[in-house]
Design a protein that fits this description.
By secondary structure, this protein is an alpha/beta fold. Helix content is 35%, strand content 21%. It has a domain at 7-146 and 233-300: Alpha/Beta hydrolase fold, catalytic domain (Rossmann fold, 3-Layer(aba) Sandwich), CATH 3.40.50. The strands form two sheets. Strands 1-2-4-3-5-6-10-11 form an eight-stranded mixed β-sheet, with helices on both faces. Helix 2 packs across helix 3 (110-120).
Length: 302
């Protein structure tokens, strides 16, 4: 597949600690009223959707942000605001900048939770119509063991002497993505590493603010204290209020989205269509033709 060159943009957003810039990349005709927003997972970047965007740019204005604290976006002054509420507010600001009255959504993991929250909270953007949503390998019920696995590496200082060392690391912690070649691992690694200043030892580092791990660890502590049930119930309520048509994509070996949760998402609320991808865990990356074809068909079918 020939990858298109995206346009880079920035939008100013507001947190309780002040203004911050959120970066976004855009493919397709900027005047196209048909907008597709693609939002990445917890430690990833908008580049994850390069192949999907290239496959849909003929029909959509495809916009892929770097959620604040990641990629080319600013880091927040106060890490306590790294959470779904802030991310939803930032997406509303971006959609206002895009002047999008109607939007389709693809959200992987954290990006799916952001989409569910936005879609279930009409008051967040009362004039915005979410038409179709792809919720990728996430749901209102999250597996505790998978969250613990993510917590083992999230926010820890990791440095690399070379690109190859970084690729090995990403391939190890992200093995469930199910990528098939070294070149594919290189493709998803290069956007998530940055030069490390010589004064700090040189080499390469990961792209994101390590403090995004602080709210995550607080969430895990609440879950361990068995106080997370109310939050899960609230997510189910949001999901059940979604008015868009929904496709849930799941890695058949996912440890975050269970088959039982995916089935419940098919049985209640928007009654999602569910598609599983064999040979993949958490989460499908939409880099393979068969995965892209499923998303394209769902978004474009009349």
């Amino acid at each position: 597949m020939t990858l298109l060159t995206p346009r880079q943009g920035f939008v100013q957003c507001l947190s309780p600690a002040g203004l911050h810039r959120m970066a976004w990349r855009e493919w397709g005709d900027p005047s196209n009223p048909r907008v597709l927003l693609c939002v990445h997972g917890l430690t990833r970047v908008g580049n994850d959707f390069d192949r999907l965007a290239g496959a849909l740019a003929d029909r959509y204005r495809v916009v892929c942000p770097d959620v604040v604290g990641r990629g080319a976006s600013d880091w927040l002054r106060d890490p306590r605001h790294y959470g779904i509420g802030q991310y939803v507010a930032d997406m509303v600001t971006l959609l206002a900048r895009l002047d999008a009255a109607s939007v389709d959504w693809v959200g992987t993991s954290m990006g799916g939770l952001i989409g569910m929250t936005l879609a279930g909270q009409e008051e967040a953007a009362p004039r915005l119509k979410l038409r179709r949503m792809v919720i990728n390998d996430v749901g209102p019920t999250l597996d505790a063991a998978a969250l613990a696995r993510i917590g083992e590496y999230l926010g820890k200082p990791v440095y690399f002497a070379s690109e190859d060392e970084a690729i090995d690391y990403v391939a190890a912690i992200s093995a469930p993505f199910g990528l098939r070649t070294r070149e594919q691992w290189r493709e998803i690694t290069l956007p998530v590493i940055r030069p490390r200043p010589a004064a700090e030892g040189g080499g390469l580092r990961l792209h994101y603010d390590p403090r995004i791990g602080e709210p995550f660890r607080m969430f895990m502590a609440e879950a361990a204290a068995d106080t997370a049930a109310a939050g899960e119930a609230a997510l189910w309520q949001l999901y059940e209020r979604i008015g868009a048509r929904v496709l849930v994509t799941r890695g058949a070996q996912s440890d975050l989205l269970s088959a039982a949760t995916a089935q419940r998402m098919a049985d209640c609320g928007p009654r999602a269509q569910v598609v599983e991808f064999a040979g993949v865990g958490h989460a499908p990356m939409f880099m393979h033709d068969e995965q892209i074809a499923v998303v394209r068909q769902f978004l474009l079918e009349e």
